[in-house]
Write a structure and sequence with these properties.
The chain is of the alpha/beta class and 264 residues long. The strands form three sheets. The protein has a seven-stranded mixed beta sheet with strand order 5-4-3-6-7-11-10, sandwiched between helices. It has a single domain, classed as Rossmann fold (3-Layer(aba) Sandwich). 32% of the residues lie in helices and 19% in strands.
Length: 264
């Protein structure tokens, strides 16, 4: 293809990019095209992938991966490039349209499948809950959810081998030892620096009214443990590489009861 032909092709692609709306994922497409080259977070999420991908095998052939909150698909594509079979889900139809469009441009041998689902709809979905996943990718979602612990319980109910998890946090002291039990008169312990805390954001944060929660590090890890995950490594700030561990039967029973009541 001549230089002029390549230039015309790139102009056509850039026109299509604009029609798809504002991009949150900066995807690097053939021809040197980037979908969000002026992203306020830099080359995002590539810069984050460079830190977290080291937790993963370089060859993910045979792995089944669920990318929850896949957005325009950066992580889905990166995982598929390593050989994984990937399902990406998101609630935003515009992001999914971007992901499918980008998938056609990238022409991967095993392109991800993209579906419009919320994390709450995963429980009971025939394709999702009836499958086994080696890895669930759950980054940048929890703090946008009204019911975060329920969401983590649903993720754990899918019995993944591994979980890559990220959530927005707030600075606090290192985690303080938490007693197995304590009396009502000692409730002041909850206010101590380093106690697991989940801060509720009633109105808006950074102009986004769906930013509902911010956890301290102690809380993020405590919530993961409570839902049945063991933190193996923290490859980056606010990011947790986990494996599944045993969870109390009472937790599973409560989850089933709640989801039946919502009709899921």
């Amino acid at each position: 293809m001549s230089f002029m032909a390549r230039g015309a092709a790139n102009e056509s692609i850039e026109s299509e990019l604009e029609k798809l709306g504002k991009w949150f994922h900066n995807l690097h497409l053939p021809g040197g095209i980037e979908t969000a080259p002026k992203h306020p977070l830099g080359d995002f999420p590539r810069r984050k992938w460079r830190k977290v991908h080291k937790c993963l095998p370089s060859d993910l052939g045979g792995w089944r991966v669920l990318d929850i909150g896949c957005n325009a698909g950066y992580y889905s594509f990166a995982l598929a490039e390593r050989g994984a079979e990937v399902i990406g889900v998101d609630v935003d139809a515009r992001y999914l349209e971007q992901a499918r469009w980008a998938s056609n441009r990238l022409q991967l041998d095993n392109p991800p499948v993209f579906r419009q689902l919320s994390v709450y709809q995963l429980y009971g979905d025939a394709e999702i809950s009836g499958s086994s996943f080696d890895l669930i990718w759950f980054m940048g979602v929890l703090y946008h959810l009204r019911h975060p612990l329920l969401a983590l319980d649903i993720v754990r109910s899918l019995s993944p081998r591994y979980l890559m998890f990220q959530t927005m946090s707030f600075p606090d002291a290192p985690a303080t030892p938490v007693p197995q039990d304590f009396g009502l008169a000692r409730r002041k312990l909850i206010a101590a620096p380093g106690w697991p805390k989940l801060g509720f954001i009633e109105r808006s944060l950074a102009g986004d009214p769906t930013n509902w929660w911010a956890a301290n590090d102690a809380c993020a890890e405590a919530m993961l443990r409570s839902s049945g995950f063991e933190v193996l490594e923290c490859p980056e700030h606010e990011t947790y590489w986990c494996s599944s561990r045993d969870v109390q039967d009472s937790v599973r029973a409560e989850l089933c009861s709640v989801m039946r009541g919502t009709g899921q």
